[in-house]
Design goal:
The protein is mainly beta. The protein has one domain. It is 6% helix and 38% strand. The protein is built from three helices and 17 strands. The strands form four sheets. Strands 3, 4, 6, 7, 8, 10, 11, 13 and 16 form a nine-stranded antiparallel sheet that branches. Keywords: Decarboxylase, Lipid biosynthesis, Lipid metabolism, Lyase, Phospholipid biosynthesis, Phospholipid metabolism, Pyruvate. Pathway: Lipid metabolism; Phospholipid metabolism; phosphatidylethanolamine biosynthesis.
């Protein structure tokens, strides 16, 4: 579950879609991994506000028993930096566009509107990185329905014929070549909002892994709830145990 506010949560599957790779075994995720070196990340004089949690037991059941599902919710205020950069080297395999509402995502909205991020219009990118699943959801808000996707500039959001029934499936596109998709480098510009809104990052990572010297390392966030971060600042690292 992903926490919206204290005491109110929503499932990752409802955010990402019923066909999310969360339900697949890792062996079903086909595609060549990107082994090129990480590119340098541009540093901007802007801030993102962060809320996050790192459950050790995924929901739904884990893609791989040795790994967990982590998530990070990034709230962008109107005066913040509104462009989205790739969090890692990864392959974007599929895009899902969920038409929906455009409720405000400020603190009052998060506290009063149940399943706010699931109700709002959003664009979900899903694929894989070296550690498994990677998914990024760009969520619209009041007066911020236009989500610009640089890897698919023809995509149009915030259309007048938004869906009326919640049972209507999202519009999905599988990027070619199938199984490889679009290769993104860490720090590469990916998408943008016209004003502030919210980005939810969901990814798979091993709770523990062996380093070259044989010691175990554990993934941990290196930021705290409510922190402000600069573009290019690390969200988490593996630390030796």
């Amino acid at each position: 579950m992903i926490e919206q506010v204290k005491g109110t949560s929503y499932s990752a599957s409802s955010l990402l879609g019923a066909s999310s790779f969360l339900y697949m075994n890792q062996n079903d995720l086909h595609g060549k991994k990107d082994e090129s070196e990480n590119s340098s990340v541009m540093h901007k004089k802007s801030w993102w506000r962060i809320s996050f949690a790192s459950p050790k037991v995924p929901d739904p059941p884990p893609v791989c028993p040795a790994k967990g599902i982590f998530y990070c919710v990034i709230y962008l205020r109107p005066g913040d930096y509104h462009r989205i950069h790739s969090p890692a080297d990864w392959q974007v395999l599929v895009r899902r566009h969920f038409s929906g509402e455009l409720f405000p995502v400020h603190e009052r909205g998060r506290r009063t509107i149940k399943n706010l991020y699931v109700e709002n219009e959003r664009v979900v990118l899903e694929g894989q990185w070296t550690e498994g699943l990677m998914a990024l959801a760009a969520i619209g808000a009041a007066t911020i329905g236009s989500i610009e996707l640089f890897i698919e500039p023809e995509l149009r959001t915030n259309r007048p014929n938004r869906k009326l029934l919640h049972s209507e499936p999202p519009k999905e596109r599988i990027y070619e070549p199938e199984g490889v998709g679009v290769m993104l480098k860490k720090g590469e510009e990916l998408a943008a909002f016209n004003m502030g809104s919210t980005v939810v990052l969901v990814f798979q990572a091993p709770s523990h892994k062996s380093s070259k010297d044989g010691r175990l390392s554990e993934f941990n966030f290196c930021i705290d709830r409510g922190d402000k971060i600069r573009v290019g600042e690390a969200l988490g690292r593996w630390s030796s145990t």
